[in-house]
Amino acid sequence: MALVCFLTCCPFVSAVTGAAQTEPTAQPTTKDFVLEGTVHGAENRSYVQVPFSVPAGTERVTITFTYTGKEQHTALDLGLLDSAGLRCWSGGNKSTLTVGLMDATPSCLPGAIPSGTWNVLIGVPNIRAGVESHYSIHVYLSRTGAVAAEPPILREPLRTGPAWFRGDLHMHTAHSDGQCPSQTGKMVPCPVFFTVDAAARRGLDFIAITDHNASSQYDAMRELQPYFDKVLLIPGREITTFEGHINFLGSTDFIDFRLDGSTVPDMNTLLRSAARVGAITSINHALAPSGEICMGCGWTPSTPVDMHLLTGVEAVNGGSEQYGLSDIPFWNKELNRGCRLAGIGGSDNHRPMQPLDQIGSIGSPTTVVYATELSTPAILDGIRAGHVFIDVAGTRDRILEVTAHAGSRSVNAGDQLDAPPGEAVEFEAHVLAAAGGTLHWIEDGNDITPSSGTAMSAADVTQSLSWTSDGGRHWFRAQAAGPDGKLWLIGNPIYINWGQCE
């Protein structure tokens, strides 16, 4: 929700290189086909079954249904039978049904997808004598829970066109330890609705509900998404282990979290499992205390972790921020090792009814992603590319866009620029709605601007940094702070002469 002129007049320069984690190739929808037929007047007040075969290994069945004759008062109801019995009955109020392992259209049951013969169940409450109604059923059979591989009808964007989109990537509901007061004032597990409603009131464009090791929240999200048609609901999970917590985004597939040396041998095995099912992963609150004070909260893997398997790091955690803790030093350290990790933020909210102006409320901090559209695949692609900044205060209008220019080449935050020794590089930061603050340039983790920073006296400023390449590996990012020194905006790095993670 940047200023309108910025979003419509200032197109983002495309990325030059990929992100740290190679984007997993999601298995395609294995099969889609069309079933067609005719319902006759003689079939009034009956039920018609249209069979189709579901192979073993299918994880989602999706159908769309259209028919003719409505102008003659023909009414056809829609249901779905799996090989064991009734799976959906929507009557005539829906034309699309989806049934997955973890979620389903309201009026349908999620759960295991048995192989064998399924039937589309067409109820015929009314068709006049002598009338024919032609129906068309598009069937999609998916073998993965990756959102990027869902049928197009299930992943239509909420908004089209490129823009900066604002969201929160870390929050909890009744499906783990999210709580809110009941009607009588008791603290009880808090329904998913209140989290999504708070995000809508905050003006967020997307959220990821990341309950601890749970996937039951996906069914509630499937129900709520049509109503909250301005807030994209990204399936997520906080994979909670004894050796650290990991955000898992973009797939409803289950991966085992039991990192005990045998069920899941090590962290690398867990991260590879996430990549195989089409998810991206990031480390949550890496420098949080661990042990009895916060069991498994800090990043304490018992064996070396291949950081290439991760997409990002939660550089700002709303829960940690309440206690004056920062995970930026961990992020800086990994960047200095050559690990290309997107810095993101998450409120880690467990109390969706708390006032929205408090630290750790939903959207505090806000992760702002430049994406081609408001859809789960596009938002995740933006994070993979590092086209992200963190709005620590969770405003609705602050923007930080960073570019670098060398010769005729131009890249954005998150991208790589190769610059031989002696070549001049010009960095530029465009900042909106941060008047009264100061801009700071960070090189390899060190603030290279004056200790007071560079003042920003207007609501729309552009400031530059000139640098001459020494041919070595470096990273640069910009950040803005308020008059009290508290960070307002944190940009992602531009990577210079990048190599491999050590």
Précis, in short:
The chain is mainly beta and 502 residues long. Helix content is 11%, strand content 36%.
Largest sheet: 16 strands, mixed
What is the domain total for the residues? 3
Mean pLDDT: 92
User: Helical element count?
Assistant: 7
Any idea of the CATH class of the largest domain? Alpha Beta
What percent of residues are in strands?
A: 35-45%
Q: End-to-end distance, in Å?
A: 38 Å
CATH topology of the largest domain: TIM Barrel
CATH architectural category of the largest domain: Alpha-Beta Barrel
Which parts are unreliable, with pLDDT below 50 for 5 consecutive residues or more?
1-27
Shape: elongated
Describe the structure.
11% of the residues lie in helices and 36% in strands. Strand 24 and strand 25 form a beta hairpin. It has 502 residues and is mainly β. The strands form five sheets. The protein has a 16-stranded mixed sheet that branches. Strands 1-8-3-6 form a four-stranded antiparallel sheet, with no helix packed on it. It has a four-stranded antiparallel sheet with strand order 2-7-4-5, with no helix packed on it.
